[in-house]
Amino acid sequence: MADPTLFISHKHSDAAIAQVVASFCEDKSNGRLKVHVSSSPDFKGPRIGKGLNAQLRQALWNTDVLILIYTSSDQDWSYCMWECGVANDSSSPETNVIVFQCGTDVPAAFNDVLRVNVRNYDDIKRFMQQFLREPDFFPTLKGALAPALKDTYLDSAAKALHENIAAVLPPPDDGLSAEWPTWPYLRIELPRTEVDSMQQASEAERPAMAARIVKDSGVIIDSDSRAAQLFGLAAFPNRMKLASLLKTWKDKNPDVEETWFDSCCEQIMMGAARGFPVIRWTPIKAAASDSEYTPVLSRIKPRPYGGTVQFDIYFYNLSDPRAVPVTTKMIPFGDFFYKKLGQIDPQALKLTDLIKDLDSHQLNRLPILSSEGYPMYMVHRSMIDKFIVKHVMGGGAATAGDLTLADLLADPELKDIFEKTFVTVKRRATLAEASSAMNTRSGCSDVFVTAGGNLNEPVQGWLTNVDIVKSN
User: Distance (Å, rounded) from C-alpha 25 to C-alpha 40?
Assistant: First the structure.
């Protein structure tokens, strides 16, 4: 009777794992196995000078058991898959294929075969039970390797194999070997015939046709859990139609226009024609929060054999203040009313005239800059009124018309307020950073934008607390 053959298929980068498994199996079989490991001269493998594939085919054709050492899907497994295919050929002698799963990834072609999670002791023990005791594990052998083996010996062997493999395994991948979307997304599938009809329609017909086709024929074939939560669902039903999703959303938001869906249809229409989709500001408000997410078509994948086209729609939170630059919301220098020392004489500028200026511009606060354009004071209308009342009612001045900007800035208490009710941020700051800077000062309600965020730099823009609150 020919000795049974154990073939270990592996990547050369995983040779250490393969050699541990090969050595262990050969030892526990008491030499009754022919163990084939092509990467090691200590085991049977192709001979020098011989045709590699011919020898491998012969070994694989006669293999009783093939163990595939599988580590990570980011490697090229084509050669190992070829080896498994030859061993598992329907016209070849019977072969048992076992996957030694060394990480979180699993080869898709072998979802239905025995898998051994080598990091799990119970899986290793189950493998040892079959390896040593099952009569049909090695078809050529016509019986088990060690049918009468005691449980204590089997436990000891399983523990040793588990420890030996653990010593040569790469560190756990902590989940980073898998890919995941960074934003909520939907993968929408449309029949290719419908996509073609969109492309062939006239420019005037396309928008209405796209909306009808996407709504009636579009099916969600993939997504992430956050996309479902966006629409107030725990999960999407299998192959949920876009029409059903839209109805669900409309039932929850009867008074809100479906502009986000119109934008999706328009982008799909443009993308199908190989054009650049127009990303419109048409956010959808998340069901569980006040956050808003804008749909963006990011990828199109035709499936010729399936007769479909897939469209990936991602939902981006473009309104997050952590991502919005202050430059998009600030009033640029030159577009707001201000006073610059050097251009005006504070002793000559009457407060009554300053109030008229503010009233004519419908403003209640006034930035005062240095002659170089540096931020100096933020004067609020209420402070001017308070100062005038204090001095006129207190008898400090004959009339309100006598008081000047110089008098106002000479008041120690008010000057301190004018200097400390604003902050500066750099031009590259975000709205979130501007808001945080404002919160560091009690009573602060204004932000000046300079190149580096310093007081000794010219003002490039101005943000009020109202501007920041509206943007959040």
Answer: 15
Phi and psi (nearest 5°) for 376? Answer: -125, -55
Q: Which fold has domain 5-168?
A: Rossmann fold (3.40.50)
Tell me the DSSP string of 58-104: HHHHT-SEEEEEE--TTS--HHHHHHHHHHT-TTSPP-EEEEEE-SS
Superfamily of structural domain 326-471: CBS-domain (3.10.580.10)
* Whole-angstrom distance, CA of residue 109 vs CA of residue 349: 84
Amino acid letter at 160?
Answer: A
Nearest of 234, 230, 240 to residue 284 by alpha carbon: 230
Cα 385 to chain centroid, rounded: 53
pLDDT digits (tens, 9 = 90+) for 317-364: 987 778 889 998 999 999 999 999 989 999 999 999 999 999 999 999
Starting at the earlier edge strand, list the strands of the sheet with 375-380.
Answer: 339-340, 365-369, 375-380
The CA radius of gyration of the chain, in Å to the nearest whole number, is 37
Q: How is residue 20 written in tokens? A: 């541990």
Reported pTM:
0.56
Domain boundaries of the chain, sorted by first residue: 5-168, 185-316, 326-471
Rounded-to-integer distance, Cα 256 and Cα 318, Å: 19
198 membership: H or E segment, kind and range: helix 192-200
